[in-house]
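User: Structure please.
Assistant: Input sequence and predicted structure:
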Amino acid sequence: MSWTDPTGKRIRRGIGHKSKVNRRTAKARRLELQISLNENRGQQGSARSPWVMWSERYLVNRTAELMPKTIAMHHQVVRLLTENAYRSHELVMALTPARANDVVASWRTLVGPATVAKWVRIAKTVFTHALNEGEVLMNPFAHISGAEPTPAQRERHVTIEDVTKVTQYLLEQKPKTAAGWEGFKTRAGVALMVQLGYWTGMRTGECRHTAGILIHGHQELDEDRYILYPRGEYETTKQKQRVIRIEPTLRLWWKQHGKYLQTMGKKPSNPYRVVKDAMEVVDVEPFTFADLRRTRDVIWHQTYPSHVCNVWLGHSERVAQKHYLSVSEEHYS
């Protein structure tokens, strides 16, 4: 069995005859050897940094590289590791895979599984940097899955009738008191989000961001395309500038309601709850903004080439096949 440590040195250890040791046993023994080497190097007084000092330097170095919201999450995970994983003045290498398991178990008592998965991914990134700098011989979170739990696939295809019912209800429910106008303005903004989600396939955050831009009159939906700029001018794997097709039906809807929304609407807040309440009132089967995006992807793929649809929607062919393309009831009729 052999592996390369962060200094580039090739380490070889015998663990028995190949025919008598399976892959799982070999992996477990390699992990034990790495932990033992970690402890030995710490006892020998090799130049290693205490966790507190190293983590502060890590956050300073990454601040210029990451978006503000992302670096804020890194600060949060580092603080959690400092509180739950390290004793005072311990070196970075002191965190073992077993202790990392205990840390993640404690996180599961605080937050939901999706947040835990996000924290695990950030912890892996932190210790990958520590590994590259030679502070540790292995990533203690490497064996823990950072994938978010996926619920049972709900391939809900939203019809134009469902969208019309929801948006009409959101726009027609006038408040009876002066205090109710703020809620009405929010509902008007959410109605625009639903229309954008159905006709353009934008992600939830993109719908909310675009609705705010349109309501404040910074852009219009009067052409056959719309340039979507990333929020905060930061480009990520999901938030990139792209040109989206604007369907004639959406342009007509905006022409009818645009001036009204610019006068009465505001950038939506808490759109999930507003849409959920509206669907219960108008008796529509519940759907999410991801369902709206999936529906648009399927509709466009029936008319346009795949590479064109993927450019409009801002994802790859692999992502479209895995998450969005599915069979609707209309395919059977």
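The CA atoms of residues 164 and 195 lie 9 Å apart.
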